[in-house]
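Tokens for chain A. Residues wanted.
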């Protein structure tokens, strides 16, 4: 976790939101704090951090204060009993702009949808509200959630709170920047290839991508137009997930949003087993992969390798048994993730049509606009749309790779067994300078592969490198053993 600072001349948000969710909710329920006061403080910090970091898409000032007063009324009426059904009672949070939030802009960071207002909450947002959370704003995002750098034609390019010349990541980068800057304690993003884990790793936060089939994506691309729309089948590889300043806040948020909603197919029942506990790490087999080789992508830099090894040492002291994972385990990560996406539907999804809101983007015309600096779309989104149209490879190529993904899933599942963990890097290095992600498009492989495999993955900060930028570890657990990777994050947090 990083604190607001002026390192590198970066902007600050104001007093950091450092308190844990559960204690804050308990204070509200006990009448020792009010949601209205906490919400006003969060809104004040957002008013400073949002514009300076270009990380805030919209502030929900009016509705948030109404919701906060409602939470205070519930606290006065029910006291501590309110926490039984509303464990997030009165807590200010932001959510990724792509997660439908009633009454707020819902543009997916795209000028195609400029001015569109959500008429209802998406499933995850509705569940946060039902658990008592106060949604104070929407963080900016990469256009249509299609890149690891948060930039779009509506809000511009989001900045890292430690160094404004760097990116906080994407696609949920606006929320990550706001949490890291101390504007709020937690936020909800959505992860289809690392979109909560990559920003968390670069911003020094805790984050969790849930197991496949655990949390519905309803209300966010590609489950924004219903289960039968083009591209909807991709949703099985996406999931909403929390980004937090405190490891202990991951589970309360995850617990609030899990389970079927009757809209997205394939969502399973909520987890009913053990809850996260650092004691669970004692005796756990942990496979360590600090320097994975990648067929496509950059080499993992030394400070990032050290962070994984350091995390392994900490967990070993807590009783874990360390084992070495094969260095080539994830080497085809990017290709296998792409194969899963390309074979999710009968025909490969046409990104140019999705980017154009159902109408194909006129690529030649848009190319001319991009050259003149007047593109309708962000450059990364345009490039991806063009590549999806120009891909010469036959469907058989992707199906062959999808079978390879099946084999890797079986291999990793067998390696972990019912209760093992894998430690590996979530990224190849620290937060990059703006625009540099275009030179390293394949580096998402270390995070994206676990979307393809459907395994839960938690990111935890370990320590900054010599450059002062955060370095993190990714903790991967067996399917539906989300509590175990979060338990490891709790151990690391205790040692921080």
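Reply:
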């Amino acid at each position: 976790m990083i604190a607001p600072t002026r390192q590198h001349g970066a902007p600050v948000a104001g007093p950091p939101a450092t308190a844990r969710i559960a204690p804050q909710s308990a204070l509200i329920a006990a009448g020792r704090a009010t949601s209205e006061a906490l919400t006003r403080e969060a809104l004040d910090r957002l008013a400073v951090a949002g514009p300076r970091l270009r990380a805030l898409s919209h502030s929900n000032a009016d509705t948030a204060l109404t919701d906060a007063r409602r939470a205070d009324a519930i606290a006065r009426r029910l006291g501590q009993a309110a926490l039984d059904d509303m464990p997030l009672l009165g807590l200010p949070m932001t959510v990724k702009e792509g997660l439908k939030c009633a009454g707020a802009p819902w543009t997916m960071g795209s000028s195609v949808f400029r001015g569109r207002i959500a008429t209802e909450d998406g499933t995850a947002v509705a569940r946060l509200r039902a658990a008592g959370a106060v949604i104070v704003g929407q963080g900016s995002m990469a256009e249509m959630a299609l890149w690891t750098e948060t930039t779009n034609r509506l809000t511009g390019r989001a900045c890292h709170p430690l160094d404004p010349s760097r990116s906080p990541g994407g696609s949920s980068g606006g929320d990550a920047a706001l949490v890291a800057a101390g504007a709020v304690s937690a936020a909800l993003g959505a992860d289809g290839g690392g979109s909560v884990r990559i920003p968390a790793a670069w911003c020094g936060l805790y984050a969790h991508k849930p197991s496949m089939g655990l949390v519905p994506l309803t209300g966010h691309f590609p489950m924004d137009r219903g289960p039968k729309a083009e591209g909807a089948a991709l949703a099985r590889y996406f999931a909403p997930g929390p980004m937090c300043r405190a490891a202990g806040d991951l589970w309360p948020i995850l617990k609030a949003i899990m389970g079927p909603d009757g809209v997205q197919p394939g969502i399973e029942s909520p987890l009913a087993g053990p809850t996260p506990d650092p004691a669970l790490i004692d005796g756990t087999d942990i496979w360590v992969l600090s320097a994975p080789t990648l067929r496509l992508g950059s080499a993992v830099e030394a400070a990032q390798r050290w962070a994984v090894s350091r995390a392994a040492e900490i967990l070993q002291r807590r009783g874990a048994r360390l084992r070495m994972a094969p260095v080539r385990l994830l080497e085809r990560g990017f290709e296998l993730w792409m194969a899963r996406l390309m074979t999710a539907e009968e025909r490969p999804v046409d990104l140019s049509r999705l980017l154009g809101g159902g109408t194909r983007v006129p690529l030649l015309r848009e190319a001319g606009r991009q050259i003149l600096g007047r593109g309708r779309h962000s450059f990364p989104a345009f490039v991806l749309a063009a590549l999806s149209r120009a891909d010469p490879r036959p469907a058989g190529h992707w199906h062959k790779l999808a079978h390879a993904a099946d084999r890797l899933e079986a291999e990793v599942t067998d390696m972990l067994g019912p209760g093992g963990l894998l430690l590996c890097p979530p990224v190849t290095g620290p937060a990059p300078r703006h625009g540099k992600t275009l030179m390293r498009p394949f580096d998402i492989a270390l995070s994206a592969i676990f979307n393809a495999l459907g395994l839960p993955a938690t990111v935890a900060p370990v320590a900054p490198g010599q450059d002062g930028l955060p370095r993190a570890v990714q903790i991967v657990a067996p399917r539906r053993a989300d509590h175990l990777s979060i338990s490891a994050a709790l151990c690391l947090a205790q040692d921080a």
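Residues 1-16 have pLDDT under 50 and may be disordered. The longest strand covers residues 457-464.
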